[in-house]
Amino acid sequence: YNKEEDDYYLKDLNDGTGTFIKIDKPLILKHCFIISFGDSHMVIQFSDTKAKMTIKFLEGPKSDSSYNFVIKDSPVTIGRMENCSIRFKNNTLSRQQCKIEYRNGEWMLLDGDGAKHSTNGTW
Questions:
Q1: CB of 46 within 8 A of CB of 76?
Q2: Could you read off the pLDDT of 60-91 as tens digits, one per residue?
């Protein structure tokens, strides 16, 4: 807690596997953010202009798989539904686990479909 700014901050102490925060409102994605859900971990990478986004899975059933998206592909959906941009057959995920939208020059991560949160959360 910072008294001067009347605000709270979270700092990772570099001990273990990192600090994960459950997404409960839209989050502006940054280059090299790691997103987790179920047993999957993925890293987000952007081109210099953010016009292209690459999602690379580090762990889980899609480990070592990469997916490329451009602004016109927005929204990018991840989940079990057939119409998801990245589809999983794993029943531990929600039908729509999370969604990535391009808004006002930024790629935004939303848990669930944006209106209803996923069952187990996106971290």
A1: no
A2: 999 999 999 999 999 999 999 999 999 999 88
Structure token pair of residue 21: 């925060």
CA-CA distance, 10 to 64, in Å (whole number)? 30
Task: Report the alpha-carbon distance of residue 31 to residue 44 in Å, rounded.
Answer: 6
Quote the pTM value. Answer: 0.85
Give the bridge partners for 99, in sequence order.
77, 110
CA distance 12 to 40: 21
C-alpha–C-alpha distance, residues 20 and 120, integer Å: 14
Q: What stretches of 1-123 adopt beta strand conformation (E)? A: 27-28, 34-37, 40-46, 52-59, 66-70, 76-79, 86-87, 98-103, 106-111
Q: Which two tokens stand for residue 18?
A: 């990192």
73 three-class SS: helix
Distance of CA 30 to the CA centre of its chain: 10
Closest Cα partner for 57 from 5, 22, 97? 97
